[in-house]
Design a protein that fits this description.
The structure is a homodimer.
Chain A: E1 16-20, H1 25-37, E2 43-46, H2 55-60, H3 65-69, E3 72-74, H4 77-81, E4 86-90, E5 101-102, H5 104-116, E6 121-125, H6 134-138, E7 142-144, H7 157-171, H8 191-206, H9 217-229, H10 235-250, H11 262-265
Parallel strand pairs in A: 1-2, 1-6, 2-3, 4-6, 4-7, 5-7
Chain lengths: ~280, ~280
């Protein structure tokens, strides 16, 4: 899925991602990679089990070096968040407590508002095996949880960070249907071009007795035109189709398969199964 | 992040996920895990490099056994999609072609509509290193691409599947602010309860000379009440706070730190730094 354009400016802003006692370097690296894809750059680690820096993290980060190199390490969660104004805790389990619980969409809208207002924010992610303690959740302002299948809720930390990072990116987009690239500009053909195709095709078919019996011809023409009109054909596509019709019209089959080309025999039956 | 409730019915519906020539079993397993989290269950593989079944895939699937066990393997992409009505191809690179390009939000809305209409759909994901060929993209109806950081676009297939699966789940939700669990029901206290706290606190402070000079008292009371009113306190929280005030009011410090408790000396200064 690589499509990096290194001439473009790297987006690097938004909430800090704080991993509490992460164990596997691979997970830390995948977190960095997830963040970089969606323009987040500030990674903080509280007591990573295998120390820091970590070669496995670097390898798994897939060149998100700007995130890995700027990663900060803390002894306690309190130190890791002391400069922040607003913090979310992620959790998949219901907690006994009084904190508001938000969906990722709502949470990233809040984070985006606070970012615009100049506040510093962060999102906490717990240990691989058992997440955050209740005491750690208590340090956050609000809880964010993911809309997973209740009967199979098993996101790892890199997946959870990916989803939050992705929603962060989307929270900054005015139009959620926006895509990074558009298909080649395709202008629909003019009606004159479309009618040219109709004329060519209908003349060539008529010359072969396609429109039979005569009384059915208007209905058959109508159906044929409906098929071609529904497609919003471009000029280029009409050229392709006219070439196809022209080829059938002008040339007979060069390698008949055991019998002579039907067109030569004038026996091509009108297929009006769809035209009745 | 594990929060599976195995008593709940497993969601298993929606588009098929089709991986074209996946190489690493770990990635196939992570794809299955991602799908299961968001209620997708139909995984199809076109020529997996290491054959099938694959122990590494099973291990990485983290108990998404219902997805792994039902995975089907095909020799060609054409065979893998021949029973489907509508297919998306995922790609991070701009392609020369005439296909519509959609964001994940738009694409999953379309997939949801087709699902409701009884159509069978699928989403194609390419090889780890270089994605889908142009010929493979050409077999799809439309293209879906992710809103990544243009200067760092590097999603692996499991991440890409995770995002599509997540958007699929969201496309079925009426309210994107919905969360799986809610905080414990918290009813805001009545004003009578709040005024009780005001009275207790102000009386206890007044008895200690907090409101000095006398002329500033109305403004200081107003500011104090503003602090407490902004919090939408619950009955329970008001009980906690009244207990705190009562403790300060009734008991003197039992272990003075080197000097006598200030309250006993009656020298507690009015801190009106925030009350000016």
């Amino acid at each position: 899925m690589a499509g990096t354009n290194s001439e473009l400016e790297l987006i690097a802003e938004g909430p800090a991602i704080i991993l509490v006692e992460p164990q596997l370097g691979e997970n830390i690296g995948m977190v960095a990679r997830a963040m970089a894809n969606f323009g987040l750059a500030e990674l903080r680690l509280v007591k990573p089990r295998d120390g820091w820096p970590n070669d496995k993290a670097k390898a798994a980060a897939s060149k998100a070096d700007h995130v890995i190199d700027a990663t900060k390490v803390y002894e306690t969660l309190e130190e890791a968040i002391e400069d922040l104004n607003f913090v979310y805790a992620t959790t998949a389990r219901e907690r006994y407590g009084f904190k508001p619980v938000r969906s990722p969409v709502t949470a990233t809208e809040t984070l985006r508002q606070k970012f615009k207002a100049g506040e510093k924010t962060g999102v906490l992610f717990g240990r691989e095996r058992w997440g955050l303690t209740n005491e750690e959740v208590a340090l956050a302002d609000e809880i964010v949880t993911f809309p997973v299948n209740p009967a199979f809720a098993s996101l790892n930390i890199a997946q959870a960070v990916l989803l939050m990072s992705y929603e962060w990116m989307k929270s900054g987009m005015e139009d959620l249907s926006h895509t990074l690239f558009e298909p080649v500009e395709q202008k629909q053909a003019t009606k004159e071009q479309l009618f040219g195709l109709f004329d060519q095709l209908e003349e060539a078919l008529d010359a072969r007795g396609y429109f039979r019996p005569e009384g059915k011809k208007p209905r058959m023409v109508e159906n044929l035109r409906a098929v071609l009109s529904r497609r919003a054909l471009t000029s280029q596509e009409i050229s392709v189709l006219r070439g196809v019709v022209g080829t059938f019209d002008k040339y007979s089959r060069q390698n008949p398969r055991g019998h002579e080309g039907v067109a030569e025999q004038g026996e091509f039956p009108a297929d009006d199964s769809d035209n009745g």
